[in-house]
Amino acid sequence: MIRAKISGVAGFVPEDRLTNEMLSQMVDTNDEWIFSRTGIKERRMLKGEGLGMSYMAEQAVRLLLEKTNTKPEEIDVVICTTITQDMLLPSVANLVCYRVGMTNAWGFDLQAACSGFLYGLETVTKFVESGKYKKAILISGDKMSSIIDYTDRNTCVIFGDGCGAVLVEPTEENVGIMDSKLYSDGSGWQYLHIKAGGSAKPSTMDTLMAGEQYVYQEGQKVYVNAIKNMADVAIEVMERNHLTADNIQWLVPHQANKRIIESTRERVGLPVEKVMVNIQNYGNTTNGTIPLCLWDYEKQLKKGDNIILASFGGGFTWGAIYLKWAY
Ligand code: UT7
């Protein structure tokens, strides 16, 4: 049986930082509120004329290819998960293939909000398991600063910019992506969405004046659903794979709020040292959180480690993936 394994991970976060202190000069907030309610200390901001999501994706992919000694022409397929494409068309995947010289690859963007990395990993896994694709790249990230209203304290303190990328290859060893369970419930759209700029409500001067190009979130509604569903799906995947707190090495939760991470950890029954957390440094980078955790913790991972990835976010979309680290 051919399995798909992650054989390399890389990331890119912009250099510019937006600290809680800086935010407290912009809106009515403070470091104590932000840190105690979300666990965030600072986030990264991509600045520079004309730089969009594809810029971060390109940097992450270049690093990934260099780290894994892979030539751009060896890549067969590229999937990018993001909610902040440079333009409505073409796709970020398409732009990155061109810029990096992945001339034998085709690719596309996939949109599942905060669960994008899991939806993308499921998709890329099936490509690789088919036997047809030998080297696939999954890019996940967002330039959230492009869709956040920096006068709205409910949303501007949470989000940041960043991007991760993984190389996925076939293996006949007993490592790699072992199991997954993904969910979506479109009735959750009303609690987290962008009101204008899509086909249902194209942008006009009125929508722009009303700020409808920015993220709208009813935080409490999303919070309650996240607390329940992220832990439920992680436990579902653990149970059917006979995984317990003892034989799991890492939980990698979507980094939306430290309190959601903490509650998921408690319900799953893991000690704090088995949970990847970097929300304090980057905030919520939406599609970027899980690969950026893998990137930050890569040196601590060992071949054969049992890892559970779990996410919940806009859509609603949520899920969990069980993988055995492959290197
Ligand atoms: O990754 C995508 C999925 N998104 C999520 O998972 C986000 C889930 N939701 C959350 O993480 C939390 O709901 C938030 C961090 C967004 C908000 O935290 P909360 O504890 O749910 O606060 P709240 O919205 O219930 O607001 C509590 C109070 C309110 O004041 P009053 O009405 O009690 O006087 C807010 O106006 O806190 C106020 N508030 C703030 N105060 C200072 C809201 N934002 C701020 C702020 N600084 N930035």
Describe the overall structure.
There is one protein chain. The protein contains eleven helices and 13 strands. The protein starts with a strand and ends with a strand. Helix 4 links the parallel strand 4 and strand 5. The longest helix has 22 residues, at 219-240. It is α/β, with parallel strands linked by helices and 327 residues long. The strands form four sheets. A five-stranded mixed sheet has the order 1-7-6-4-5, with helices on both faces. A four-stranded mixed sheet has the order 8-13-12-11, sandwiched between helices. It has two domains: 3-173, 3-Layer(aba) Sandwich (Peroxisomal Thiolase, Chain A, domain 1), CATH 3.40.47.10; 178-324, Peroxisomal Thiolase, Chain A, domain 1. Helix 3 crosses helix 4 and helix 8 (219-240) packs parallel to helix 9 (258-268). The radius of gyration is 19 Å and the shape is globular. Helices cover 33% and strands 25% of the residues. The protein has helices at residues 20-26, 31-38, 53-67, 92-100, 116-129, 153-156, 205-209, 219-240, 258-268, 279-282, 289-297, and strands at residues 3-12, 16-19, 42-45, 77-81, 106-110, 136-143, 161-171, 176-184, 192-194, 215-217, 250-253, 306-313, 317-324. The structure holds oxa(dethia)-CoA (UT7). Oxa(dethia)-CoA binds next to helix 2, helix 6 and helix 8.
Structural topology:
Elements: E1 3-12, E2 16-19, H1 20-26, H2 31-38, E3 42-45, H3 53-67, E4 77-81, H4 92-100, E5 106-110, H5 116-129, E6 136-143, H6 153-156, E7 161-171, E8 176-184, E9 192-194, H7 205-209, E10 215-217, H8 219-240, E11 250-253, H9 258-268, H10 279-282, H11 289-297, E12 306-313, E13 317-324
Bound molecules: oxa(dethia)-CoA.
Oxa(dethia)-CoA binds next to helix 2, helix 6 and helix 8.
